[in-house]
Amino acid sequence: MRVTLKDIADEAGVSIMTVSNVVNGNRARVSAETIERIQRIVAARGYVPSASARSLAAKSSRMIGLLVPAADEDSLMISPHNVAILGQIERQLRKSGYHLLLRGIAQPSEVGEALKSWSLDGAVLLGFLDEDVDRLTPGAVGNVSLLAVDSYSDNPLTTGVRSDDYTGALLAARHLIGLGHREIVFAGPPFTGAGVVHQRYDGFRAAFTEAGLTWTERVVTVETTTHSTGRDLGRRIPTDHPDATAVFATADILAIGIMEGLADTGHPVPDRFSVVGFDNLDLSEYVTPKLTTVAQDIPQKAALAVERLLATIEKQQHPDSPITLDVQLIERASTAPAHTA
């Protein structure tokens, strides 16, 4: 049978309010002797405070929502990169005494509904397009603190943490150009505005300008960034771009699929094609050949996201400008000097 505040109060000979104050840390008007007695009884009886009761006492739910896009009612759109971010965010929140609630959002209009119905202290937006973040209004957000991961939105209702996408793609293109590649395919999801993929596209193109070269526009797009779409893409690239010698993919999982698709058509990596990815997921070291990729510090990104969100919640700070994290190129076996016929 669950031990209640009343049980503790009866045994200690004090009021329920006094026990509640001690349990929740409000001890200014309680004597040291009474505090010690209550704590001793709490430990002996194995009393566990109710999370909901604590929330009411603190006027805080201690709950953070993690909102991710949903392809439909039955599936969430969570890439391997976002899975890694999600795990790190949950870990950081747990260490800070918060609980994480995951919610799939099929339509951008559902964001406001989710924020209002959960009594959240804050929420993290993960995987949303900038235009979706831009559409958020004060009426939809209410008093919930928001942080958008990997967003370039200027919406003042959110703060954010992201990696230096422009520089990452710049480093990838510099590496391939340095190996003698000139006909390079840029592969990723469709992009508009100033979002993550567009930043990587701009950085990629900048490397050619920097080197005094003209890049033959070779952009191939996929609707979903998955291994299977990458494999299909890899099978088509030798036919659609017969002069190409390298591919830069905007995500590791896409790059790994492309490598497999190229191999399927007799174009092995790196003998015929060099391939570079982005993220430095664990998978990039498990494949053969190991993937050259742009590394972003996912644990640091998650830790800073939680730190910034909780500072906004607990200190009522106005969101600062987004934090942009450094990236670096990790050279592995999937890149080699350009193939010449």
Description:
With 341 residues, the chain is α/β, with parallel strands linked by helices. It is 44% helix and 19% strand. The strands form 2 sheets. Strands 1, 2, 3, 4, 5, 6 and 12 form a 7-stranded mixed sheet that branches. Strands 8-7-9-10-11-13 form a 6-stranded mixed sheet, with helices on both faces. Strand 7 (184-188), helix 10 (196-210) and strand 8 form a beta-alpha-beta unit. The mean pLDDT is 89.
Summarize this, please?
Helix content is about 45%, strand content about 20%. With about 350 residues, the chain is of the alpha/beta class. β10, α13 and β11 (about 290-295) form a beta-alpha-beta unit.
Shape: elongated
Q: Report helical residue fraction.
A: 40-55%
Overall strand count:
13
Taking the alpha carbons of the first and last residues, their distance comes to 79 Å
Radius of gyration: 26 Å
Strand pairing plus helix content: what structural class? Answer: alpha/beta
Give the percentage of residues in beta strands: 15-25%
- Regions with little confidence, pLDDT below 50 for 5+ residues: none
Instruction: List the total number of helices.
Output: 14
Order of helices and strands: HHHHEEHEHEHHEEHEHEHEHEHEHEE
Task: Report the sheet with the most strands, covering strand number, pairing sense and barrel closure.
Answer: 7 strands, mixed
Q: Average pLDDT across residues?
A: 89
